[in-house]
Sequence to fold (1511 residues):
Amino acid sequence: MAERTQQEELDELDRVLTRLALTEEANLEKVVKKLLPLAVDRLSTPHKAVQVKVLGMLSHINKRVKGQKDIKLPLEALLGLFCRRPPPLPMVRNFALVYVEMAAQRATPDQRLAIVPHLLEGIASKPAAQRDMLLRLAAGGLAQLNGPGAPRQGDDADEAAFAAKYTFLQSDADRAVFLEYGRILLLYSPAQKRLVLPLAPDASQEAAARAVDPVEITVLPGGLAASDLARIEGTAGAPRGEELTLQRLGFLNFITAAGVVPKDALVPYLLAACDAQDPQGRVAARGETLVRKRCGVDSSKPVVDLEDTTLLESLFRLFLGSHPEGTTPSSAPATAATTASEGQPGAAAGTAAGQSAGGAASTAGATVTEPAGQALQLRLLSLFTRSLAAANAFPRSVQVIFACVYGKQKTLRLQQAGMEFAVWTFKHASPERLAPVAPSVLAGLLTLLDEEIPGDNAGRTLRSFTYQALGQLAARQPQLFARDTSAAARFFQALVTEPPGVRASVQEAVGSLAAAYRGCTGTAAEEIESLLLTSIAAPEEGRRLAAVQWALRLFPFRHVAARYVCCTAAGDRKLEVREAGLGGLKPPKATGGATSTGRSGAARAAPDSAGRASEGATSAGAAEPKEAVTGSAAVTDMVTDGAAAQDAAYPSAREVVAYFRKRHPRLGAPADAGEQLLMSEGAFLALLKFIQAAKASTKGSGDSSGDDEQDLVTYAGVFEHALVRDATPALQVAALEALLGTAAGAPLAFSRLYAPRMLWLRSFLGHTDAAAREAAAKLCGVAAAGQSGADAADLLQQLAAVFLAAGSTTRHGAGGAPSAGGAAPAASDNRAAAVGRAAARFEERDGTAAACGYVLAQAMSGSPSIAQEALTAAAEALHAALADSDATLAAAAAAALGHAALRGQLPLPEGQLPASSPANPDAFALGTATASVIAVVPPATAPTTRAAPLADTPVAMDTDAAPTPATRSSVLQRVVGLTGNRDNKVVLRAVATLGHLASHQTDAATLQAASDGLLALSSNKNEEVQFAVGEALCFVFGGVPVTADTILHSGYRGLAAHLTATGEAANASAVPPEVEGSGPTDMAIDGEAPADGVEGSASKDPPARTAAQDQIMTKLLNELIFHSRTEVRCGACIALLSLASFTGRHPALQPRLPAIQEAFSGLLGDSNEVTQEMASRGISVVYAMSGSAARKQLLDELVGVLQGGARKRRAVKVEGDTRVFAEGSMPTAPGGGTISTYKELQGLANDLGQPDLVYRFMDLANHAASLNSSRGAAFGFAGIAKLAGEQLAPYVAAMVPKLYRYQYDPNLRVRDAMAAIWRALVPEPREAIEKQWGAIADELLKEVGGRLWRNREAACLGLADLLQGRRWPAVADKFEAMWTMALRALDDIKESVRASAVTLARALRSLTLRVTDREHSAPADAAAAVGISLPLLLDKGMGSTVGEVAALAVDTIAQIVKGAGAGPVRPHLQLLVGSLLESLSTLEDTRLNYLEQHAERLGVDSGGAGGGGAP
Fold:
């Protein structure tokens, strides 16, 4: 077709224009719909005149249509013209777009929404003007996605279908342009005009003071530039009010329905959540919901990756804008503070200076973006403080901090959030990134602290965060503070000046700041030391606590000044400071020692008459030490990096004393009894103990501290200042024991110094504290070595006169008693005046009796040399005191004789034990010799059947009867008699004395009597007595690892306590107990195990002692461990344990180790808990001393018991009063009363007419013993596990499943025991559980349906814990079995099992809902889980007759259907719907059925009554 000429086109246009002009208004819309697209398209003509004619036609159309808003324009046709391919001429596109905009305003909502895909197609490639217009049109169309028009969300298929209609989303560029416009739309608010005073940056104060006219500036909304406002407003103006709200909601709904990834949608959601323009809050509520659900930023595992650097950069730009004034690190805080517009709400598009009166933004600043608003900044900060990448995004992170603290929009709340982000940044930023900006940040933070901040809660919170930030900065960049201690002084002062609400943060910052000064030297170190010494004396608790903490962290343990700070803090009135100080006096690295397992609350203490450990020394004089390195002089050498954690060496005791004398010069002068304490009691106590520990640590290291007279005098200057009148009894006890420790280290020097001061030492023999009297008595014994023979003899006579003067006046046998009336010498401090006369009388007698024994023992050693008559007289005096009316004093005399016997045979005739007489039939365990001994003891001291008060019923002697000759045999008789006293303290001293008396005996009858007397106490129910008997038997047996000097010259409190304090092992094998005062415990393997069959060398003991050894072992192994009474078996077990621990390497004991092991194994199942525990410890002891074959056999036996194997039967004699069941474990008898003994069980069986029922009872008792055996084996196994090492490896895998279950056993003690094994065998529990998850689950599932209720209960609880955090692949193969067994356990006959089954059911329900939820599990996993759980719950759950099971099933099914979605549930709909319909009537409340049946009688409509039921 030939191209038309210009004239033809003009003629045609004239006709069309004429027709248009003649068209009536009613028909105008039809004409325009056809004509307008053609006219716009005609603009593509090459003829200029035609274009002019077309423009005239369009102008005519505009005039006629403009006033008639109801005329619709051809929107689709015009849009098609605009989007035509190939694109039309620019003029055509521009006019088409103009008319598209006009047509969209007249179109229906559906039409505007329908054109959105076409508007946004290729939007990134459009010119800027067209792009903005198209985006405005699209925003108007998306406003329809609200209310009923909103797309349905939540289904992946729906999201995909919705997104498929909007192909522009597939283009990254188009999507980015669209989302950017959405950001602007959500931030948009109209610009505001504001009048401000202009101020040039360099204006002087005079110029500023002159009156000037205000100028108008434009204040832009946060986060936007002036150009952004133009994009929203266009030529027609921005949408307002409800229209703007709908556009924002539509945009949010669109990106949600289209499935825009959370990373891209996060910013729009955050902007919407911070919206404040919608008065109804719809935008903010919608944004908050989407942030939480779609992005999950508030959850522990957010959906959005906050470590994405691209995302973070966009968030930083939004926060800071494009010109963050005063927010760079180089901009000092003062710069931000002097900003012209500071204090103005909002951000200005430019400064007032230089702007015209009109206030229009300059063209150059049109693209400058303002920082986000405060609400949005706070929200962004909450994200930054969860991102490690944000902390390392320098300089952005620092810019954010400064913007918050010093920016134009700063408020207290924003400053708080900024400082919180600063804490996060300094904590997580890499050091190399933080180092360049650290000085600027430090200056800014310190400047902030100098500012006046309101004292309200917000201001306090800001200061708290500031101190936290400084603490983190100090921890990460310590070099900023190391050379300048002013920050430390400032922080210490802040502990006083800051308000209480801030001090906690200051305290934390002070702790962090300490790391900055670790390793400082020279002047800085001296200033820090001076600061600590000043602070420890401050009245404020916070400063004192900080001083102690810094002393612990900055200085090594050998630093004397730091230990001074700790000692001072140990006497602080505040508990926290006190504990910190005491902790600083212990080496940083804890010493070794096995931990006790399964210890019950009952007393486990070994016999302990003194009650305290003692080491140390005192002296009377004062002298300077040989070396004195004080803290300040040695600071440079002492402060080393990491020393506090690595160096555990004690300082020299000399240095410690010298430094304290420097700080307290009065310590260097002689002590005056009337002076006041130079330090608090707690500080003095800590000092005494620390000096002793420092001296003990240098033994064997070449340091001879305390080993010569000069050191002794030096230490006395400190110790004697703690013995003044103002000192408390506890402090005096510690000082005396410290002096005793020094005397033990240098007895010759001590005796030379203190022999002349014997009266001063004797003044403490009447002390109110028994430990002080005992220490003073030992000191008298040591000092006696420096006296002459005559003086020592006179001393013995005076001591004897004191403790006999208030007693019986009866004269004694040959040699006579010392003459009465020799009262104790007057004490220099007149101590007797401080106590009542009666109390002092007893205490003086007790103390002098003990001193007499120690002096006698010292004289028996040959130094000093005393006539035999004087020794005999002293021994006879003590013998006479054994019959004292006060059993306590008689026990003191017995202990004194025992101490003397440690040096050899007592200086008394041998004597002869009475002829054997029939043993007391009521004393089951007494030998004939012991029975004879007790038979001749005066009645008042023999065992009585009724306890009598000591003060009211004295043990009087018959003064008319012939006196008992003083012989060694009579001493033994009377001591054995004291073992029958009802006062356990008396018994304890008598038992220890028996052991001491037998230590040097060679007479068979005497040894037999002593061992029988000790074994007779096996029936004593006091555990402390039983432990004492065990140690005493060790002395009778022979081979104890202590010497007489150790017992007489130190703070010896028993074998167990001594070995614990010294760290030695009995016979190089037994490790002492780790619990204070406890009995013997686990033993360490000393090298390799001994070879099999080695019995040791032949014993060299005399025949009498060999016979006693045989007697003891025979009695224990063949009789007592099989006795029918529980307490007897317990006593025998403790005795065996003591022998094995303390004499285990004795040649006489080695061949009996297999028998001892068998005895311990049998006692593991004893009903007594103490017996079980002691037997388990005994197994560990024997294991350590056994050969490899014996060890393997023992391990096999223990593992077998733990795994439920048959235990070895043990023959135990059963009598009528034998306790078969524990008290309270059996129900009450029909006639009332409990059933626990064999006799009571027989009576019950006979009353029921079923005598054979007693055998069933015994079977139950045997089952209970099996459970006890498992617990006992657990204790023993836990001890061996620490020793066996690789030998246990083959057993671990098989034991883990059962051990896991045992940890949930209903019996608390079993749980504790098994937990100890678990910790010993499984160093990495999580790894072990993961590795053997299947085996553990199989074990638990088997036991859930087991026969024993305790196993079922434990399995339910264990399985519930095992399921925590599991994913579907791990539980898939056992999922059905777990549900089956859980539903079965819910119907268990035992209530406690049902309760544990509820716990299991809850865990299973939680797991099921998680693995079936499509948002938490993969689609395939969710479908598989639904496929197993739904049919099972419908069948076995809802079909159950148990109400709890059915209710659980219904609830779980409902939640599964709700969370799984349509896909996984659809295959089971038929079964699901049918089961639910059937269950309506079965689950219906029975009251509804009753109401329906009686509706007429009750006046209720029957139709309404049944309306709620099943159809």
Notes: The longest helix spans residues 1253-1284. The two ends are 78 Å apart (CA to CA). The mean pLDDT is 75. Residues 306 and 387 are 6 Å apart (CA to CA).
